[in-house]
Amino acid sequence: MRKREKVAYILGIAAATALFTWVIPPTPQPPVEVEADTLVVEPIEPVFRISPYDSLFREYADTLGWDWKLLAAVAYVESKFDTAAVSSVGARGLMQMMPQTARAMGVPEGMESNPDESVRAASAYFAYLSHLFRRVPEAERTHFVLAAYNAGFGHIYDAMRLAHKYGGDRHVWNDNVEIYLRLKNDSIYYTDSVCRNGRFSGIETTLFVRKVQHKHSEYRLREEAFLQEHLQSGV
Fold first, then answer.
1. Going from the N-terminus, what domains does the chain have, and what CATH number goes with each?
2. Phi then psi for 201, rounded to 5 degrees?
3. What are the Cα distances from residue 109, in Å, to 7, 39, 153, 187, 196?
4. How far apart are CA 233 and CA 235, in angstroms?
5. Which single residue of 22, 24, 51, 228 has CA 20 to 30 Å from 205?
């Protein structure tokens, strides 16, 4: 074979080999086995549930700096988690807000029964009330905010002024301001010069605060028991 032909032959073989390699894919290699003890499985976090609206309570409680179970307790006491609930005085929805208050908190007309709107608006109102009672120590403030949510802040201000006038502590709820809120049903007190919002029967409001706090404590205990059970079972 001539030298020129030999070179051409070699080049041809090289080209054919390259083409064959490009057209025919390489044989797949078997997967690499991983030892079982090297696999990392993320544990599933147990989730304590109260109602179908827990995600809303969690979301909006974060904006308040509250325990989400407290919002759930308010919803239970107000409506038993019934989004279509309407009270005898016209309060509506999951959080039982009066239409005018809901409107002030940005709820569109006709959307009072929407759970997202209801929880969002109630949380905004709680934030507003918390600001009004900002001089009350944080450990006591929730009582005042809950009472004002039920009765309106004007009557709570009256009870605080009465407590201060008659030797009580206007920044303490139990056995202080709550007593004078109930006494606002008596003309001796609601006609007192420090009262600016007239007569008020405070029994329902003081019971409301107690019910919400009791339900909140119940939910906290249930959550602790739930987490403890799952911790012991290793789930």
1. 50-132 (1.10.530.10), 136-235 (no CATH)
2. -90, 105
3. 90, 54, 24, 38, 31
4. 6
5. 51
Among residues 221, 235, 229, 178, the alpha carbon closest in space to that of 67 is found at 221
Exposed, middle or buried: residue 47 (CB in 10 Å: 0-12, 13-18, 19+)? exposed
The pLDDT of 200-225, averaged and rounded, is: 98
Give catalytic residue positions.
78
* C-alpha distances out from residue 88 to 74, 81, 85, 94, 207, Å: 18, 17, 10, 15, 18
Tokens representing 188 are 């001796």
> At residue 235, does pLDDT exceed 70?
no
The residues, any chain, with a CB within 8 Å of residue 203's CB and separated by 6 or more, are 182, 185
Q: Are 127 and 111 in contact (CB under 8 A)?
A: no
pLDDT, residue 7, reads 44
Contacts of 59 (CB under 8 A, 6+ apart): none
**Cα separation of 176 and 194, whole Å?**
16
Q: Render pLDDT for 75-102 as a digit per residue (tens, 0 to 9).
A: 999 999 999 999 999 999 999 999 999 9
Do residues 170 and 161 make contact, with C-beta atoms less than 8 angstroms apart? yes
Q: What percentage of the chain has pLDDT greater than the value 90? A: 77
* HSE toward the beta carbon, residue 4, CA cutoff 13 A: 0
